[in-house]
Amino acid sequence: MSPTARSLGDHLREWRQRRRMSQLDLALEAEISQRHLSFIESGRSTPSRDMLLHLAERLDVPLRDRNPLLLAAGFAPVFAERKLDDPALEPARRAIDMVLKGHEPFPAIAIDRHWTLIAANAAIAPLLSGVADQSLLSPPVNVLRLSLHPQGLAPHVKNLSEWRAHLISRLRQQFSASGDLMLDKLLKELLSYPAPKTAGEVHTDYAGIAVPLQLSTKAGLLSLISTTTVFGTPVDITLSELAVESFFPADEETAAILRSLALS
Fold first, then answer.
1. Hey, where are the domains in the chain?
2. Residue 188: C-alpha distances to residues 114, 181, 196 (Å)
3. Which of 104, 146, 31 lies closest to 262, judged by CA?
4. Which CATH number fits the domain 87-263, given the four candidates 3.40.605.10, 3.30.559.30, 3.30.450.180, 3.40.50.720?
């Protein structure tokens, strides 16, 4: 191990503290003694691979970050990271395409851990006609940048202040949970955009259950709420970081507009 390499104890301690868990909390969750956990963190005891993976599971460590834990303990990495065009991921890619297509005429997208657009259904294109800076639509497209950039969708979002606050909060939570520095960089970029004016904003309280996206389009004002779908039992890093964001009409007017756009 090089002088700058981090020990297993350092990795475990960082994830435990990130999850705001004491040694006792984690020991109880993992059903081991606090003394045993203390010995593992101090380096006085070397856990088995199964114990290490068990602790990582209890700490909800992302698959991408479990391999460094294994390496720090002297074990070989377990989790593969394949490109999306790898034949092994073809069933997953088909599943994503089916979900996206099946959601039409309502919009849906697939994104990776950095909010990079992986795929989108046909209902997305009409929503992007107002984007002024076409470079924002050049791959790789970051959907948060596209949403909040002053030359992107931001001028057309009628509840921009609350939508921006919602997206920023999600990104902060994601960075806090993962420690991914790319997300921190993206967060700082989004926060550097001009603060939206609140005068004249449209606000609709959907019984306090969701923050809607109020998007002005050539076809009319769309009110959308979204859900996020992830794969339930991934053992591949790439697959574990994919998510499908599906948008649903929040009112009948929006549903009618989206159906008419699909027919045009």
1. 8-73, 87-263
2. 14, 11, 16
3. 104
4. 3.30.450.180
Per-residue pLDDT tens for 37-69? Answer: 999 999 999 999 999 999 999 999 999 999 999
Structure letter (DSSP) for residue 157: B
CATH of domain 8-73: 1.10.260.40
Q: How many residues are recorded in the chain? A: 264
pTM for the model: 0.88
Burial class (CB in 10 A: 0-12, 13-18, 19+), 204: middle
Contact partners, residue 64, CB within 8 Å, separation at least 6? 79, 81, 113, 237, 240, 241
Which pair of structure tokens corresponds to residue 97?
């395409």
Q: Contact 225/206 with Cβ under 8 angstroms?
A: yes
Distance CA 29, CA 59 (A): 9
